[in-house]
Amino acid sequence: MSRVYNFSAGPAMLPEPVLMKAAEEMLDYNGSGMSVMEMSHRSKVYLSIIENAEALLRKLMHISDDYTVLFLQGGASQQFAMIPMNLLGGNRKVDFIHTGTWTKKAMTEAKLVANVHVAASSEDKNFSYIPENYTFSPDADYVHICTNNTIEGTVFTHIPDTGNIPLVADMSSNIMSEEIDVTKFGLIFAGAQKNLGPSGLTVVIVRNDLVGKHGENTPVFFRYETHAKEKSMYNTPPCYSIYIAGLVFEWMDQLGGVKAMEEINREKAQILYDFIDESEMFTSPVDPRYRSLMNIPFAAPNDELNKKFISEAGKAGLLTLAGHRSVGGMRASIYNAMPVEGVRKLVAFMKKFEMENK
Ligand code: PMP
């Protein structure tokens, strides 16, 4: 067996102990005589899996009973549509801080049913920073932000104060990578396939007073209330993805929780940014004040060198380093499950590449 260091933006690496435990339990989960993939989602044994996953998520993110945790499907993209369906009030007005591809997609959905106001945008500088001056509409139903911009490589270092207006955050690419104060948010959502587990699962953490605000024409299936009432069991949930996410939460818990993850993530990002800053070949397009800990775009001076880098890195066991197809260059996604050793190997390879291609 030979495992590579996989820098994919998602689906991404999972912790090896999690994969090994899942392999061990594949044919016979906990004496049930069947795989988690084969069991009824309403069985006692599965109920204990989903309840344990939720309890650990609550523990790790310090989520109080004022919030409902939902395990849904449809990806973060489905939330772009579901959030306005559920959170719009009479004003039908949404404020966005526009920071890249994923807020653009969310705005496209919101515009179908709401007046969208851009409270701030970093489009003027190709989304290379996070705006800090915003003017929120006093009558907005909610404010939408994307805390970590997976493609552009930026992160919010301060959470905007929206007063009484609920703050909605797309945390798909940085959930549980650093400590956050959940009480600052009305709703947090994330596709699982970066920091939490396999694709197929979308986690929604929503303040209880925001559940049940949907319009009367909202399809039953797309109401948060429906899934909240049934504890994510209105229909068959993504059973296996929830099971793996539960194992990932156990792994994080054993390592010291989100605080410990954050320390390791800061160390990993520092190693890579320090090298990029001292390199005469590689550059980062991001304003240093807003550099993401999770997604690190960088580039060599021309496309030919970028292509060569990606190809040779692949041969050295450092995979999926191509930048998003919309921006080119390179991008290293270093989520919780990427070991420090993987980042050290990448930096050693970059040094060697720079020497050989001067
Ligand atoms: N938001 C962010 C920040 C993302 O990185 C992604 C996926 N890369 C999405 C939303 C879309 O997620 P999904 O594919 O789960 O719909």
TrEMBL record:
Class of this enzyme: transferase
Gene3D superfamilies referenced in this protein's UniProt entry, alphabetically: Aspartate Aminotransferase, domain 1 (3.90.1150.10), Type I PLP-dependent aspartate aminotransferase-like (Major domain) (3.40.640.10)
Cofactor: pyridoxal 5'-phosphate
Protein name stated in the entry: Phosphoserine aminotransferase
Function: Catalyzes the reversible conversion of 3-phosphohydroxypyruvate to phosphoserine and of 3-hydroxy-2-oxo-4-phosphonooxybutanoate to phosphohydroxythreonine.
List of residues binding pyridoxal 5'-phosphate: 76-77, 102, 150, 170, 193, 235-236
Family: Belongs to the class-V pyridoxal-phosphate-dependent aminotransferase family. SerC subfamily.
Main subcellular location: cytoplasm
Spans traversing the lipid bilayer: none
GO CC terms, sorted: cytoplasm
Molecular function GO terms recorded: O-phospho-L-serine:2-oxoglutarate aminotransferase activity; pyridoxal phosphate binding
Cofactor binding annotation: Binds 1 pyridoxal phosphate per subunit.
Pathway: Amino-acid biosynthesis; L-serine biosynthesis; L-serine from 3-phospho-D-glycerate: step 2/3
Record localization: Cytoplasm
GO BP annotations, alphabetical order: L-serine biosynthetic process
Annotated residues for binding of L-glutamate: 42
Native organism: Formimonas warabiya
Aminotransferase class V domain location: 4-346
Subunit structure: Homodimer.
EC number(s) given by UniProt: 2.6.1.52
Catalysed reactions, semicolon-separated: O-phospho-L-serine + 2-oxoglutarate = 3-phosphooxypyruvate + L-glutamate; 4-(phosphooxy)-L-threonine + 2-oxoglutarate = (R)-3-hydroxy-2-oxo-4-phosphooxybutanoate + L-glutamate
Positions of modified residues (N6-(pyridoxal phosphate)lysine): 194
Keywords associated with the record: Amino-acid biosynthesis, Aminotransferase, Cytoplasm, Pyridoxal phosphate, Serine biosynthesis, Transferase
Pfam entry (one): Aminotran_5
